[in-house]
Amino acid sequence: METENQSLSTEQSLEIITRMIRQAQGNVKRNAIYLILWGITIAAANLGMFILMWTGYSRPYVVWLITLPAWIATIYISYKHGKEATMSTHLDRINALLWYSYGVVILAIVMFGFKINYQLNPIILLISAVPAFVSGAIIKFRPLTVGGILFWVFGVVCFLSEGPWQYLIGAVAVTTGHLVPGLLLRNKTERQDVQRT
């Protein structure tokens, strides 16, 4: 009798652990909205910058103002997700801290970009590789891991390119590194949610 209770207890424990791992992965996967939002925003800003530079517009950098609504949307979505979260795991906290750290680094680079004559794209692309690559590994989602690798590749290519071409490369990098993995992740999560119901 005692052995049967221990066996049942072990099975229950494994089920609880498995559920917690799935919950942590689900929480991370539901954050695909951020990859999509910022993928679209930054790709559009890079393309806008590329076009405005080629047309000779005197202030092509104004296109980056489209990031302001994206920040507002990010804060709102983050607040909403925080209220809806049923369980937060250690994995969730690590992933969140990774992306917060990334945001702080990018903000510092943008704020002090004048120190390097605003040649930011190669640096930002190389730094963007880290959270994409690590998050992909955390949730075991290969497209995001590959997106991180592509950020590294495009970052190096961007260093070897000049002027407007850096922005076109940036648009491609963000599309392949954030937007496409974000869309694939959202679709995968939606399919899994449908299968569970």
**What gap, in angstroms, lies between the N and C termini?**
36 Å
Mean pLDDT: 85
Strand content: under 5%
Largest sheet, described in full? none
User: What is the H-and-E element order?
Assistant: HHHHHHH
Compute the number of structural domains.
Answer: 1
Helix content: over 70%
Class from secondary-structure proportions:
mainly alpha
Strand element count: 0
Q: How many helical elements?
A: 7
Radius of gyration, in Å, reads: 20 Å
Shape: elongated
Low-confidence stretches: 1-5
Report what the structure shows.
This protein is mostly helical. The protein has one domain (about 30-85, about 90-195). It has helices spanning about 1-30, 30-55, 65-85, 90-110, 120-140, 140-160, 165-195. Helix 1 packs parallel to helix 4 and helix 4 (about 90-110) runs antiparallel to helix 5 (about 120-140). The two termini are about 35 Å apart. The relative contact order is 0.14. Residues about 1-5 have low confidence and may be disordered.
